Amino acid sequence: MLIPCRNEAATVARVVADFRAALPACEIYVYDNGSMDDTASAASAAGAIVRNERRPGKGGVIRRMLGEIDADAYVIVDGDATYDARSAPRMIAELVANDLDMVTAVRDERGKGAAYRRGHRLGNRAFNALLGVLFGSRPGDMLSGYRVLSRRFAKSFPANSRGFEIETELTVHALEQRLPVAEMTTPYFERPAGSSSKLSTWADGARILWMTAMLFRDEKPLAFFGAIALVIAGAGLLLGGSVVIEYMETRLVPRLPTAILATGLMLLAFLSLGCGLILNNVARGRREVKRLSYLAITAHRRPVPPT
């Protein structure tokens, strides 16, 4: 059980207690991400194992958690008491019974209608739709902070994100590696009184959008650079078409700067397409390396021999 936290003193003890009741046999780790309040002491008093990650950013915290903790299944949840602990056993059972690598909780809003901040519901749907267009499979809730991961997934996931865009990276990694995953609808509650969200609507939304674009570039470079080439070539044809027509009619090139610009744009379009073709082979090699890394990891921890 892994709980990344920053300034969640008002809720972390409740989260630890709820998941302790739902999963009595699990070890609960709380990673305090430079909190300015009593998050660490509250988590420790509730019975969690507390560790510190000073570098800010949820992505960095999850990167460290997955690297340090050794387990057969990893339950990751935010420490804001908005997710349903009673759903954890069902999610783990789904993961184990079907040999899955990730089960994502799709949030079903409960309470007084204020679980999502204004605009976040629409933004989440827009990002889900965008991911469906770019990667061919639309997730139900790509920004969910409640997931169960297999050992193989956790130990082969590169985790390059620094902030809240880590959920986007988790989703895209599973899609591009064609890993067996599932989604499960779970209740989603309002934040308790005294707790405030750390998500910045516009700043973090921009980071998520940028991460989506960069992942699309890295995973599907031919489509990415091909689209750029198509736009540039369209501009070149639009500018150069009239020049070619004039030349065909008069055998003169009266607008030489336009002709040079159109030629440059067409060359740039072919250069972009060439980059896409080359990087497409590089991306294929990277996917193969990730796949081999995934297969090299045992699905379950090897038992430690008695000493």
What this model shows, in words?
This protein has helices at 12-22, 39-45, 58-68, 88-97, 120-135, 151-156, 166-176, 201-219, 221-250, 256-296, and strands at 2-5, 29-32, 49-52, 73-76, 102-109, 147-150, 181-188. The two termini are 28 Å apart. Helix 1 (12-22) links the parallel strand 1 (2-5) and strand 2 (29-32). The protein has two domains: 2-219, Spore Coat Polysaccharide Biosynthesis Protein SpsA, Chain A; 221-296. It contains ten helices and seven strands. The protein has a four-stranded mixed sheet. A three-stranded parallel sheet has the order 1-2-3, sandwiched between helices. Helices cover 53% and strands 12% of the residues. Helix 5 packs parallel to helix 8, helix 8 (201-219) packs across helix 9 (221-250) and helix 9 (221-250) packs antiparallel against helix 10. The chain is of the alpha/beta class and 307 residues long. The longest helix is centred in the C-terminal third of the chain and has 41 residues, at 256-296.
